[in-house]
Amino acid sequence: MEEAAEEMKKLGSYGGKVRVLEWETEEAGAAEETMLLWGIQQPTLSKQNAFVSHSSLQLRLDACGHSLSILQSPSSLGKPGVTGAVMWDSGVVLGKFLEHAVDLGMLVLQGKKVIELGSGCGLVGCVAALLGAQVVLTDLPDRLKLLKKNVETNLRHGVRGSASVKELTWGDDPDNDLIEPLPDYGTMIPLFLLNCKHYTANLQLLSLITKIGSELLSMIVE
């Protein structure tokens, strides 16, 4: 029996054709749709960074039954190459995606080893730890003070998993404890934001991913 032809539609202001996905239940696709619609609509159909404020010293967000308070350092944004001192929409969307996916039984983080690359302010890593993951949040040496403060502030109680902070520079070989055993999830970074303006950093990131988790790399390529 021949399979039914896949329905294609133009979606978003880019005008590109995408395959229409039909979920068995409304709830089953909720988490994926959150990520998909945000990715399609940004940056042309809505204001960039509508969920965050780069001028604020603190971002408050409810997640996993906790009220999280993420400290930011807006003054650091003026330094060349510094992006991890404040929160971005992508981090908020990814954190909520993980929460909904776990709630719906589509993703299991309990007891899983997770290495977060480029943790920034640490929101996504904190959410993963609250959902039961054993998370190692990594970033450059000058970003660790703020990152550690946010981890300590938001993961004091009611944490199903654990979180630790470690220095890691893209392009350097990761320490053995990051890759032995290999993590269940190699990175929590929103990879669809990679672009040509940061070509060298992207190559360093992809090289690092191959060392800590080949499964994720195959997902990117596909």
Strand content: 15-25%
Q: Calculate the terminal CA-CA distance, rounded to whole Å.
A: 27 Å
Fraction in helix: 25-40%
Structural class designation: alpha/beta
Give a verbal description of the structure.
- This protein has 222 residues and is an alpha/beta fold.
- It is 32% helix and 15% strand.
- It has helices at residues 30-41, 89-103, 123-130, 144-154, 176-179, 199-212, 214-221, and strands at 8-10, 17-19, 58-63, 66-71, 113-116, 134-139, 162-167.
- Helix 1 (30-41) runs antiparallel to helix 2 (89-103) and helix 2 runs parallel beside helix 3 (123-130).
List keywords for this structure.
single chain, 222 residues, alpha/beta, 3-stranded parallel beta sheet, two-stranded antiparallel ribbon, 7 helices, 32% helix, disordered C terminus
Summarize the structure.
With 222 residues, the chain is α/β, with parallel strands linked by helices. It has 7 helices and 7 strands, in the order E-E-H-E-E-H-E-H-E-H-E-H-H-H. Helix content is 32%, strand content 15%.
Topology:
Elements: E1 8-10, E2 17-19, H1 30-41, E3 58-63, E4 66-71, H2 89-103, E5 113-116, H3 123-130, E6 134-139, H4 144-154, E7 162-167, H5 176-179, H6 199-212, H7 214-221
Helix pairs in contact: 1-2, 2-3
